[in-house]
Amino acid sequence: MGDFAREAMAPGVVAVPPDVSLAEAAQPRRAQDVGDVLGGDGGRVLGVITDRDVTLRAVADGAAPLTVSAQAVCTRAPVVVGPDAPVATAVSLMRGHAVRRLPVVERGRPAGVVGLGHLAVAKDPTSVPAGISRAAPGGTTGGTRV
Predict the structure, then answer these.
(1) Using only C-alpha atoms, what is the Rg of the chain?
(2) Are 72 and 87 in contact (CB under 8 A)?
(3) How far is the CA of 116 from the CAs of 70, 130, 144, in angstroms?
(4) pLDDT tens for each residue of 80-133
(5) Which of the four, 23, 72, 137, 141, has the lowest number of CB atoms within 10 Å?
């Protein structure tokens, strides 16, 4: 595994303004095949929008995706890590804050995201979590349906 967050992160970031609708925030997620979107304003990370956020804070309440803003469902003021932070620091932050993803921020701007899957791939590319993280969406990993 690399020693620094920059070596374990998924580079590039999907960012949307906080006032866009959930439907608008979902479009770049689909186009770029990513699970997380950062809500930002002027390059600053204001929040993280995960599938879980959308499910628990919008869908479960029956909210309409065209009328609910990304800001309304995002996890605000997320814990972030710098690209030169040791991977151990990222892991410690994820454990301490019970999060699965950390935005990587360089000079106040988002540079990428470190997630549990990225760490699994970096540590042991042959592990089950690494295989799941690399799998194509829709369950095309060749597994057995239960």
Answers:
(1) 16
(2) no
(3) 23, 9, 23
(4) 999 999 989 999 999 999 988 899 988 888 888 888 877 776 666 565 554 555
(5) 137
How far apart are the C-alpha atoms of 146 and 136, rounded to whole Å? 19
Residue 16 counted as domain residue: yes
Stated pTM of the model: 0.72
Largest CA distance in the chain: 47
Residue ranges making up the domain that contains 129: 5-134
Asked if 25 and 16 touch (Cβ cutoff 8 Å), the reply is yes
Strand ranges (DSSP E) for the chain?
Answer: 10-11, 15-16, 37-41, 44-49, 75-76, 101-106, 109-115
Domain membership of residue 145 (yes or no) is no
CATH number at residue 34: 3.10.580.10
Q: Number of structural domains, the chain?
A: 1
First to last CA, the chain: 33
